[in-house]
TrEMBL record:
<dbReference type="InterPro" id="IPR038277">
    <property type="entry name" value="UreF_sf"/>
</dbReference>
<dbReference type="GO" id="GO:0016151">
    <property type="term" value="F:nickel cation binding"/>
</dbReference>
<keyword id="KW-0996">Nickel insertion</keyword>
<protein>
    <submittedName>
        <fullName>Urease accessory protein UreF</fullName>
    </submittedName>
</protein>
<keyword id="KW-0143">Chaperone</keyword>
<dbReference type="InterPro" id="IPR002639">
    <property type="entry name" value="UreF"/>
</dbReference>
<dbReference type="Pfam" id="PF01730">
    <property type="entry name" value="UreF"/>
</dbReference>
């Protein structure tokens, strides 16, 4: 990749990016509340499940489709991937969180980049032709920036894991060294998730993590919540 594309990838992967992902735990809060995740080992096992069963077969597939469509200036294909991702995401909180983060990332990109495709995509979201999921917006942003699609997938995985590790540090007694150890251990899982998504079309999005969906539904009705999801 070019230096500009590499630096853009760093920016999009930075926790400093103001897209609100620090407000979500993607069900982790409920796993902790139910004593299903109590330590670093439990947390690593759960994050591996997320990567293999949800992020890889769903978000990364949508990201790849949006990345390819952005390179071809195909707004219809972007919207199709966006709608499909929303359709296969069962938990209402997950859909809402992904769309809120996506809206913030899309707004930010429009502020920083003068690109007609971003404007047309924003119009489609405003017209309810597309939900504006974060993974799809990220696919568009990385495609327009010239970031390699595999690097974009790894960027997405890294951002997802670091976001949940940050949430875990607020929910568990998890030190920075343990968090870094989990991040390091999950590197091959992230790579495998990226590989798994490569041969899938948007019709092949198959997220399947029933317990995650059940606890996400429980979290919607929790009396006390630190996180939005």
């Amino acid at each position: 990749m070019s230096d500009d594309a590499t630096l853009e990838a760093f920016r999009l992967a930075d926790s400093f990016l103001p897209v609100g992902t620090y407000t979500v735990s993607y069900g982790l809060e409920q796993f902790v509340a139910d004593d299903r995740v109590t330590d670093a080992d439990d947390l690593e096992a759960l994050l591996e499940t997320y990567l293999r069963r949800q992020v890889g077969p769903a978000e990364l597939v949508a990201l790849r489709a949006a990345h390819a469509a952005a390179s071809e200036d195909d707004i219809d294909a972007i919207c199709a991937a966006d709608r499909r991702l929303a359709a296969v995401t069962l938990a209402a909180e997950f859909r809402e969180s992904a769309q809120q983060s996506g809206d913030r990332l899309l707004s930010l990109q429009r502020e920083l980049r003068d690109d007609d495709l971003l404007e047309r995509y924003a119009e489609s979201v405003a017209a309810d032709d597309a939900p504006g999921n974060y993974a799809v917006v990220l696919g568009v942003a990385t495609g327009l920036a010239g970031i390699d699609v595999r690097q974009a997938c790894l960027l997405c995985c890294h951002g997802f894991v670091t976001g949940l590790l940050g949430a875990a540090q607020r929910l568990l007694s998890l030190g920075h060294t343990d968090a870094q150890r989990i991040l390091d251990d999950l590197r091959p899982v992230m790579a495998e998730a990226a590989d798994d998504s490569a041969g899938r079309s948007i019709d092949d999005m198959t997220p399947f993590a029933p317990l995650v969906d059940v606890l996400a539904a429980d979290h919607e009705r929790a009396e006390r919540r630190l996180f939005a999801s």
